[in-house]
Each structure stands twice: as structure tokens, then as C-alpha cells.
Amino acid sequence: MERKKAVVTGASRGIGKGIARCLAREGYDLAISYATQREEAQNLVEELQAQYGGKYFCFQASLEQEGAGVKLLEESVKALGGLDLLVNNAGVTRFENILDLTPEILNLLWNLDFKNYILMMQAAAKYMVQHQVRGCLINITSSRGERAYAGDFLYGGLKAGLNRAVQSIALDLAPYGIRANNVAPGATRVRERLPGETDFWDELGQKIPLERCGTPEDIGEAVAFLASEKASYITGVTLRVDGGLILPGMPERVLPGEDLNGWSKAHSPFAEEVLKEIH
After folding, report:
1. Rounded to an integer, what is the distance from CA 108 to the centroid of its chain?
2. Do residues 20 and 215 lie in contact, with contact meaning Cβ atoms separated by under 8 Å?
3. Is the distance from CB of 9 to CB of 186 less than 8 angstroms?
4. Beta-bridge mates of residue 60
5. Closest by alpha carbon to 88, among 143, 6, 169?
């Protein structure tokens, strides 16, 4: 049986690496992208080759740059010899109070976290239609697309936009047998724990209903499922993988020693400076 072929953006580390590992295990040939971590990307390619065989390629791509995503897709398809799955994962997280937002951050998040996803989906879908591939498009969004926190209006708003956009994209592509879905991680450990280490992710995990943070492989398993024939009747959905993180509202009661979860006071450096001058 011919191996399937996938492109995973931003796979040199974190969630992208977990996705790549799960897809390689499922028998995919892969082209992965990295922005700056060339050595980590190359190490991953060598790891997957040694463990699973198949074909693996890595390409540098600064996906916030105009045209970089489409170019990456073209190079990847040429190297792989086809395309069955695109996973849009590469992105940045930036939190800004509306009072402190700069045009640079606005443009960065818009270009990398939204615009590039749309353009790469378009390019992948056109290839699939032209070659009669009943493929899959999967975007990594965020539970912040559903739940608001102070300072995440831009990041969360763009993720919410992708959650809504994928529904119409799924309708556009359904006649061609192409499925489009999202995976929305919650708090996910993006750095491997050192032996004996207790860190921020362990402390945060205790506040989550399932009492741990997610792992890159948790997200990878969700992607592998949505890309598989087991999910062949699923399209236009955003699958939240967050251990129940955003299910609770504001606590009805707080026990001694516990802190308030669920919301926080807004913090703005701009406003603090203004208030200093006033007082």
C-alpha cells in the first residue's frame, strides 16, 4: 500500500513535534517546517527515519512572510510526490492588552496565525482537487478561541475566527471528498520535563479537571484520528483537547488555600503609567 503524505508546519519542537511523531507512527511520509530551529528539525527527521522508515524532509520557512506558506507547500509536495494531509500548526502566542497593542504584533499574529493558515489550506485544497485526492486539512487552534482571558483578544479572536472559518471551508470542500477540521489544545506542555523537575506545567495541571497539562502527543493523537478513516464522516468540527480546562465557570466557593480560577484582572503597562501621572 502506498504511504500517505503529510505536511506539518512548525514541527521542530512542541506540539508540532508530537504531531509529526504520531503521523510517522501511522505510516505517513512527512515534510515538516521550522522557522529557526534547524538542528532540532533535522534531529526529528533522523529520529523518525530510524524508528519508522519512510521519507522525511524538513524545510525552513518564515511563514509570516508573504508567499512563504504556498512556496513551502509546493516544495513539500514535490519532495513527497503528493499530498494527503496538511496540518497547519506553526504560530506564535502573544498576549497584549488592547491599550498596549502595537501594529507590529497585530501584523505578526494576523499573518502567521490566520492568513497563512487560510492560504496554505487553499493551496493544499487546490492540489487535492486537481489530483482527485480525498484528503484532509487540519488546523491547530486553541481553547482560547472559545473562552476569553484578559489580554488575549487578538490571539483568541484569531483562533475563534479559524474555528468559524473551518465550518464554511468544510462545506466548500465536501463535494470533492476533502475534509477540514481543527484541533484546539488547552494548556499543553511544550518543553520536556527534566528528570526530577517540577515546573509551571505541573502546578498549572493541578487546576485542570483531569489534573494534568496536555502533552504534544495528546494533540498528535487527535490529529492522527481526524486524519484517519475512523473519522471519515467528520468534517467542519473543532475538537477541543484540554482535559476539561475551560468547562468550569467562576468557582461558586473557594476553599482555604485555593486561589480564584477562571478570570483575572486586566493588566496594562500603558494604563499604569497614565494612572501614575494622574496620582
Report:
1. 16
2. no
3. no
4. 34
5. 6
Concatenated DSSP letters of 252-273: S---TTPPPPS------HHHHH
Find the catalytic residue in 56, 117, 155, 176: 155
Strand order in the sheet with 136-140: 56-60, 29-34, 5-8, 85-88, 136-140, 179-185, 238-241
Helix (H, G, I), strand (E, B) or coil at 45: helix
Give me the residue label for grid cell 486586566: 266
Question: How far apart (Å, rounded) are the C-alpha atoms in residues 64 and 91?
Answer: 9
Domain spans of the chain, in order of start: 5-278
- Residue corresponding to grid cell 523518525: 48
pLDDT at 271: 79
CA angle 154, 156, 159 (to 5 degrees): 110
Span 195-241, pLDDT tens digits: 777 788 888 898 899 999 999 999 999 999 999 999 999 999 999 99
> What's this model's pTM, rounded to 2 decimal places?
0.91
Helix (H) or strand (E) holding 23: helix 14-25
- Measured distance CA(45)–CA(31) in Å, rounded: 9
Cβ neighbours, 10 Å, residue 267: 13
Q: How far is CA 123 from CA 4, 39, 69, in A?
A: 18, 28, 9
Q: Is 149 assigned a catalytic role? A: no
**Distance from C-alpha of 171 to C-alpha of 159, rounded to nearest angstrom:** 19
Written as nine digits, the cell of 179 is: 475534509
Query: What cell does 98 get?
Result: 488592547
- DSSP letter for 37, please: -
As a CATH number, domain 5-278 is: 3.40.50.720
Residue-wise pLDDT for 110-137, tens only, equals 999 999 999 999 999 999 999 999 999 9
Query: If you ran DSSP here, which 8-state letter would residue 215 be given?
Result: -
- How much of the chain, in percent, has pLDDT values that exceed 90? 80
